[in-house]
Each structure stands twice: as structure tokens, then as C-alpha cells.
Amino acid sequence: MSRGEYIAKMSDCTACHTTQTDKPFAGGLAMPLPMGTLYSTNITPDKETGIGRYTLADFRRVLREGIRKDGSRLYPAMPYTEYTKLSDADIESLYDYFMNQIKPVHQANRENDIPAIMSMRWPLALWNWMFHKQGAYRVKPDESAQWNRGAYLVQGATHCGTCHTPRGLAMQSLASDETEHSFLAGSDLGGWHAFNITSDETAGIGKWSQAEIVQYLKTGSVPGKAQAAGPMAEAVEHSFQYLTDSDLNSIATYLRSVTPFNDDKNKPSRFEQGQPVSQDLKLRGVPVDVASKKMPGASLYMGNCSVCHDADGSGSPDGYYPSLYHNSVIGSEHTGNLIQVILHGVKRHTASGDVMMPAFGQHLSDKEVATLVNFLTKTYGAKDANISASDVKALRVSE
Ligand code: HEC
Ligand code: HEC
Ligand code: HEC
């Protein structure tokens, strides 16, 4: 893998710029924003429809400042707010990769569907003036080389904060590095919650070891703590699994130093909840129709989930089928992720193997999913999530 390709992988340019595998980087991904739908653009080196006419200086400017070759401003849906931290050398390698290793694809960009008044790009200049801190990462001489490398990667290329740092009313990220309150403190995105990953021991991942953080980013799974589904599974699959162990360790070192953020000291830790509880024993000898009326959660669980996660929720010994207690998705007060996992399943392909949990969205009604979620959070998590069928319905839209 060339240096440029490595930087493209860790920055996950593919996530937003590739929609058809046979046309890498040709753009066209729909990004629903509060004011309308924006489409990512063609960044192949095609001279008419792509970025074939960009010079290195143009390319540096678009990544650092979000300004296109023609001088117009990009919406901050393109994470130039993070990529601004990339070093000159890394930008140069990335430029070389896009210009010389990517096949030009002739495909015109799609117009965005943002209402005329909102689609004026000049107010973005004001947005940038207010919120965007431009400039390459600056080394902190008091910290180790490993820490600095981690800070460079987390704040910049791997853009963890794009998903994990809360946003304000103008969609601006509320913090861009560890010196600012709420950096990586958790944020909602498209029906998912990207958890608090500060070093707080209960609200964050302060009790995870260095090796566990590395393993999670490389494989997406740390049995007894967490698995990566949804957007995090994609980030692991397309990006983080390719990072060298040295880079992953740098990320872990830096993460473990990020100021703890805890907005509610009474909130229990996500991954320390619950214990094995056998549904099989509870339902034994109870006629099926009685069980489904009186113990609907346990019945649904035995009918749909226990084949893989075991009757007592302990999963398989190797963790391929994860345990449902000591599981951050069930232990979290943000129930959206659990609903998403049941509706849409889990798919993750990495060098360490294929992970697949089937989607139950077609098979289970909104009410059944709600019943299961309330049952699971009560049995294997901290407390009954108390959600209703309409909460589930709201998350089906992404199907
Ligand atoms: C989270 C989604 C996302 C990621 C990740 C992303 N981009 Fe973008 N990018 C966009 C969107 C959306 C636009 C169009 C924004 C607009 O029209 O205002 C864009 C526009 C661009 C443009 C402007 C091209 C033009 O039309 O002139 C360039 C260049 C670009 N991206 C390069 C990159 C590179 C290189 C990477 C990886 C280092 C990357 N992008 C990663 C979403 C993304
Ligand atoms: C595209 C959005 C996105 C990006 C980028 C992203 N994450 Fe995540 N992350 C998520 C979501 C969503 C979850 C919850 C996944 C789930 O419920 O299975 C998550 C979960 C996690 C968890 C598990 C926390 C727990 O308690 O279960 C860790 C650790 C984590 N991310 C670290 C990182 C790091 C480090 C980076 C940058 C190197 C990063 N993430 C980048 C969206 C993202
Ligand atoms: C065919 C086997 C299978 C069945 C049936 C199954 N699962 Fe899973 N489940 C998996 C696999 C595989 C994973 C992913 C493990 C990983 O990410 O490493 C998983 C993951 C999960 C997770 C963790 C997701 C995360 O992001 O941390 C939860 C929660 C879960 N399943 C709940 C359920 C529920 C509830 C049911 C029943 C409606 C169910 N599963 C049915 C195989 C299954």
C-alpha cells in the first residue's frame, strides 16, 4: 500500500465519496442535512467532472479551508474541519494517490436539493469565520511522540470527533481537541449514538485497556465490552482495520489521556451491566400461548435470539456471538443503537473474519421490537428502557 493510499484509508475518503464499488471516488452519496440533501462530489482525477484540474495548492486549500478550486465554499459535511490538521507531507502523498493511482471516472456531480436561500454558499464563509480553526496539527513538545501521533490521527485524519463530539445548533462541532470541554463526549447521528469515548471510567472508556482499544479498532469486537455495528462497523471495515499496530497504539494512548467527561455521575457504566439469566428455565413447562402473553419478552427472545446468544444471554465462548450482558449497547441509556441492531442486523468484514447478525426488521413488528428492547435492557442492562412501538417506527426510515 502506498503512503497516499494509507492516508486515504485512515481518512476514510471512501465512506462518502464512493457509492459504486466499480467507480471508486466518483461521488454521489446523499447526505441528509437539516436544510436539505447534499451530494458528495466526484474526486477522481477526471478533468471535466472530477478534480483532475486541481493543483497541489488547490488540493491543500480544499482540505484545510474547505474552498474549491473555483473559489466556492464546501459545506462542512466534508470534514475539512478535521482534515485541516493533516501535515503538508501527508497532503502531498494523498494528492499523489488521487492524481496517479485513481482511475478517472467521467460522472457529473448531482445538484444538491437544498432550498435556494439556504444553498447560497457565501454564508459558509461566516460559518468558517466563527467555527473553523484552520491549520496543520501542532506538536506539543511536553507530550511523547506516541501521544502526538495519536492526537494527530484522532483530531485529524481519522476524524473520530466528526461522529463522537457533540454538535451545536449550527452543526458545528463543539470541540476540536482535548483542551476543550466535551471533546469526544458522545453525539447522535442518524438514529445512532456514537458513545462518549473520553477517559471517564463510567461514562467513557476509561476502564478499557490499551490493548482493548486497539483490538476494537482493528476487529470491531471486544468480548465482554462492545462490538461495532452501524457507522462504527463501516469505519472499522473501511478504515481503522488498515492502520498499523503502531498507529492504533498511538490512538489508544491519546484517547486514554482525553479529559474525562461525565454529565451524570449516577449513570452506570455501559459495559458492566447485567449477568446471565436463563429464559429457558423461566419458560420451561409454561404453554407457548400463555408464555407469549405473560412473558412476551422472554418468548420473543427464545424464538429469535437465543440460538446465537444462548438462552442465558451469554453468547458463544469465543465471543463470536457476543454476550448480551456486559454489552455496551444494552447497558447504554441510548437505546437507539439496540433498536438499530435488531432492525438492521450487524455486518462487518475485516481481515479477522466476517461478522453477520441477521436483520429482524422485516420479521418483527414495531411493538415486538419495543417489547424485546425493554426486556433486554431490563434483564441484561441497567433498567427497562421503556420505549414504545413509535420509537421503533421512527428508526425504520433508514431501511
Ligand atoms: C463525511 C463525508 C466525507 C468524507 C469522509 C470525505 N468527504 Fe470530501 N466531500 C464530502 C461532501 C459532502 C462534499 C461536497 C460538499 C459540498 O458540495 O459543499 C465533498 C467535497 C470534496 C471535495 C471538493 C471537490 C469538488 O467538487 O471540487 C474534495 C476535493 C474532497 N471532498 C476530497 C476528500 C478527500 C481527499 C477525503 C479524504 C481525505 C474526503 N473528501 C473525505 C464529504 C466527505
Ligand atoms: C462514522 C462515525 C464514527 C466515526 C468516524 C468513529 N466512530 Fe466510534 N462509534 C460510532 C458509533 C455509531 C458507535 C456505536 C457503535 C455500536 O453501537 O455498535 C461507536 C462506538 C465506538 C466505541 C465503543 C464505545 C462503547 O462503549 O461501546 C469506541 C471505543 C469508538 N467508537 C472509538 C472510535 C475512535 C477511536 C474513532 C476514531 C479513530 C471513532 N470511534 C470514529 C461512530 C463513529
Ligand atoms: C444467527 C445468529 C444471531 C441471531 C439469531 C441473533 N444475533 Fe445478535 N449478534 C450476532 C452476531 C454475529 C453479532 C455481532 C458480533 C460482533 O459484532 O462481533 C450480534 C450482535 C448483537 C448485539 C451487539 C451489537 C453491538 O453493536 O454491540 C446485540 C445487542 C444483539 N446481537 C442482539 C440480538 C437480539 C436481540 C437478537 C434477537 C432478535 C439477536 N441478536 C439475534 C448473531 C445473532
TrEMBL record:
**Residue sites binding heme c 2 per the record:** 160, 163-164
Q: Which compartments is it annotated to reside in?
A: Cell membrane
Q: How is the cofactor bound?
A: Binds 3 heme c groups covalently per subunit.
* PROSITE patterns the UniProt entry points to: CYTC
Identification of the protein by name: C-type cytochrome
Q: Specify one Pfam family.
A: Cytochrom_C
What GO CC terms are in its UniProt record?
Answer: plasma membrane
Cite a single GO MF annotation.
oxidoreductase activity, acting on CH-OH group of donors
Q: Which residues bind heme c 3?
A: 305, 308-309
> Origin organism of this chain?
Vibrio eleionomae
